Amino acid sequence: MRNNCLSCGTIFTVPDQGKLVIKESYFNHFPKPLPLTVEDKDEVHTVFSYRSHEELKGALEQWNDGNIPHIRIHVLDPSTDRSHPIPLTHLYERITRPDLVSIIHKGEFQAHLQPIMDIKMKKVIGYEALLRTNHASIHPGELFSFASDAGLQSMLDQKARRAAVKAKAEHLQKGEKIFINFLPSTIYDPDFCLAHTFQMVKEYDVPSEDLVFEVVETERITNVDHLKTILEKYKASGMKTALDDVGAGYSSLEMLRLLQPDYVKIDRSYIQDCHIQPEKQSFLNQVMADAGRLTIDVLAEGIETPEEWNWLAALGVHFGQGYLIGRPAPFPHAAILP
């Protein structure tokens, strides 16, 4: 696992000219040979050479009718004599979109801040950090999707955490919370992988108690014990934790008991028109009851109308976030009070 963690911080540069080393046994599963020059071959491996990224990309698209096999290969860089292991699918994505590889590698993005308000006090208590690239044509969703396809999720997640902590240090006061999204699947070994985050917090001299690490909405929990260990590591360092997307797979009272987050965030789909939809009101009442028994704070996302705000305030929801309060921006900004 630690090899995976170590790879979070570096991306090897795919050479313009190089060689691929592929196990001979893999070719038994494909109807035609890989259309590249064979440099060497034995009973175990075949070595192919390519003269450009375009040649390699074209060969992979021709092979197996464009269905790139998810097999692990080695790329040999003749300029360094080094060998780099990588799944072939990841290699293909990286040579196809070098611009996105560069953005992730160089960290060409920043954290935009969306205010979170105490509903009862009508006071901003913190901000959620939302990743935005420095390139207007690149949507954050495109970057995250590419990172998943190219095997760069760990690096992107790590650098996004850094951008969020940096934004906290530069723009927020002591006592103002910063909610930071993270992908549990990128944290292979909590003791080892989170050491980088804890060192980053020290580097920027940010109070641990002002950081809230939030399981992102796109994650689906497959290993509850692993996630519990991660959350416990954050808490042991004095940080807070949050579960997003309540109601979509892991919102049961038992799950909340197991994970004991400090906050649960209710997705916009349950907030929209909550003042006039009885089924949503029933769900929100249940969440408040469950969270209350466990002393977990509830945060409603996506509040866009005064009617939604007023109904949630009457219910006793603790915190709110959404366009009615404030949109994401590069700097902290005054919330629009309902």
UniProtKB/TrEMBL annotation:
Cleaved signal peptide residues: none
Entry-linked SUPFAM superfamilies: EAL domain-like (SSF141868)
PROSITE patterns: EAL (PS50883)
Family annotation (Pfam families): EAL
The EAL domain, residue ranges: 93-338
Recorded superkingdom: Bacteria
InterPro entries, per database record: Cyclic-di-GMP_PDE-like, EAL_dom, EAL_sf
Protein name: EAL domain-containing protein
Organism per entry: Halobacillus kuroshimensis
